[in-house]
Design brief:
It is built from twelve helices and twelve strands. It has 338 residues and is α/β, with parallel strands linked by helices. Strands 8-7-6-9-10-11-12 form a seven-stranded parallel β-sheet, sandwiched between helices. A five-stranded parallel β-sheet has the order 2-1-3-4-5. The structure holds (2R)-2,3-dihydroxypropanoic acid. (2R)-2,3-dihydroxypropanoic acid (DGY) binds next to loops.
Length: 338
Amino acid sequence: MAKPKVFVTRIIPEGGLKVIREYCDVDLWVEDLPPSYEVLLEHSQACDGVVSLLTDRIDAHFMDSCPQLRVVSNFAVGFDNIDIPSATNRGILVGHTPGVLTETTADFAFALLMSLARRIPEGIEYVRNDQWQTWGPMLLMGQDVHHSVLGLVGLGRIGVEMAKRARGFDMRVLYTDMYRREDLEASMGLEYASFDDVLRSADFISVHTPLTAETRHLLSKDAFSKMKKTAIVINTARGPIIDTEALTEALQNGVIGGAALDVIDPEPLRADHPLVNMPNCIVVPHIASASETTRTHMAEIAAYNLLAGLRGEKLPNGLNPEAVGTLRQTLPRTFEVL
Ligand code: DGY
């Protein structure tokens, strides 16, 4: 019995790859840079499954060009690179990797907050440049994190973990979200607020919402104008939630205090971009979930989603379980080995 054919669009940790290799005929993209859309199509068109990354656009045209495709397993919690309704309409199952990266990402978001508030990158530069002559009473004074106000834009899993960390620093935590979480207000002392109130009141504004048509450029020129002049914005969600041009202007003109960005629009950001060279801005290359343990867990989850999809079963972490009922009927073969 033939093994299912799958395209894995980049090298992922071995914990997941070995599971996939055991059961599938694997085409693994080994380059450092992602395949172009055309190359992605070419490699996937005869495949039963694809393990995709957030850099791979999986749209309706892609799905129509891959007639055997049963499952797309995204190696990420975010899935704005995939057209889920089109997948569902075509009976293609889609999976992602939630849960395992929640705390790792929140740790990183809090680290960004602390680094910028306390001017750690500037301190490192100062010593590296051999500027350190003596202890200075006025040297590199930053903002206190403890007892300050954290504003969360989005209170999903990662937002909640961010709130937990903030409580350890005696911060007041405001959140805005489509859904009110009265349970967490009671148990964690969180305060529900309108988007504008979060913008006006917070010392630190951390973004934890998915990228959708509604959240694209949620943090715009108008939003920055409502923030405190000292406010620091942290983004570990998706770059386009912040209007990069508006942010650059806001920092250049002293409208807000700073920004710490794991994600940015566009990615990658070139080194000559003004944001990269501002002392009150940190840009890092989308690494918030990049701990060895977490990335290994993500790979395992992606592998198990893939295998379940190839069997035509509900994925352990699926985004469109309703598609199980409408799986492509014309699939040419079954995979007993799975
Ligand atoms: C995700 O999973 O969506 C992150 O952006 C990468 O871990």
